[in-house]
Amino acid sequence: MTVLTSMQNQPLVAPNNSPMPDNIPGPSFRPLYDQIKILLTQSLIAGEWKPGEAIPSEMDLAARYQVSQGTVRKAIDALAGDNILIRRQGKGTFVATHTEPKHQYRFLRIIPDKGSKDKVHPTTNFIDVKRGKASAEVARALDLKVGAPVTALRRVLVFAGTPIILDEIVLSSVLFPNLTLEKISESRGSIYSFLETGYGLRMIRAEERLRAMAADAAAAAYLLVAEGTPLLCVDRIAFTYGDKPVEWRRGLCLTDGYSYYNELA
After folding, report:
1. Is residue 265 included in any domain, yes or no?
2. At what angle do helices 58-65 and 32-45 cross, to 10 degrees?
3. What is the three-class DSSP state of 130?
4. Got the DSSP string for 66-81?
5. CB-CB neighbours of 257 under 10 Å
6. Residue 197 is inside which H or E element, if any?
7. Does the pLDDT value for residue 26 go beyond 50?
8. Same domain? 108 vs 91
9. Domain count, the chain
10. Less Cβ crowding at N or C end of the chain, within 10 Å?
11. Average pLDDT in the chain
12. At 103, is the pLDDT very low, low, confident or very high (cuts 50, 70, 90)?
């Protein structure tokens, strides 16, 4: 995303200092609502509105940016479509948060083969948290230098009493300092809700790559299967505001009775 840093908290005005008409493209040749979307995103990046907090009304934002309420509404609709903002009837518009039950496991795609397609919320068994240095693969994914300090945590996700997913999650130690097994073990909800409330960084989208692999000795031990058992390997990069990559994750998933489910539209 191109961020209009020179326009942060400044009204969008035409050269004669009158409000810019909605039908005239701005200097960046983006639709005006898209420029407002960028400015709203900049405010989110700067922490002006925290996850779970209400943003100003459409009327107030229209006055702030000197555009019509319709333009602001279209920008907010776009951010709501990206699950960055949430509209609540009669209450206003709020910054989306992973602490809400329906958003805690928004990126989880493993569901049972039988029964409803609704997501099953697993229980989590944390294994360890270790400090290390970014490998070439992790550095490339997180836009870090090779050897940059990182923190890696491992956990097992248990569905209906059966270990199904072995996760390795790697985070920048600069962005997530002092992360310990004790802190994360005491958290409730998803790992993303913990990182959001503890460090103020919210994951807003993710990219995943899937491939098949055989369980090595460590994966077999944690998933209680034989070495060589087929697993689904899901590599994920999660991004926060401004399309900044902040998490690399590798999930090794058993698919006996469970499937990776994704709805395409």
Report:
1. no
2. 100
3. strand
4. TS-HHHHHHHHHHHHH
5. 12
6. helix 191-199
7. no
8. no
9. 2
10. C
11. 83
12. low
